[in-house]
Amino acid sequence: MNIFSNLFLLSATISLTLQVIVLLLLVYGYSLKVKSQFLWHGRVMTAAVFLHLGVILSVMVPSLVLALIPVVILPHALSLASVVTLLHVPLGVTALSLGLWLVFSWRFRGGLTGCFTRKKFMLATLTVWSTALSLGIALYFILYWSTLIG
Fold it and tell me: On the chain, which terminus has fewer CB atoms closer than 10 Å, C or N?
């Protein structure tokens, strides 16, 4: 099947691709931190958070509301796709909330003031986001594996 013939598969694939780009930005941002380039680290992480926010608002929320809730969750509440979705969503919201808090608390303070004291929150955010990403990848394959190989 052609990926362009299934709107849900296409939007999910675009979303997944953009999330991999977010992951690459996070890795690059971390490498900047290791090199003590803290200002650029903050800028790259800010870009990653806002790209992630854009994907959530433009693809994930509409997909959840228009497809996953009515087609997967409500009629099949105990299915693997439903359970993964119901774990993925709150973890994703938590990661986004923490990411936005970190970005805004950094941007509106100016300089590096307070960044080092929030290091444990940065690690927690990365852990929660990585878990949400893993569940999102699992959900992608649960929903589309048969379409992708067929």
Answer: C
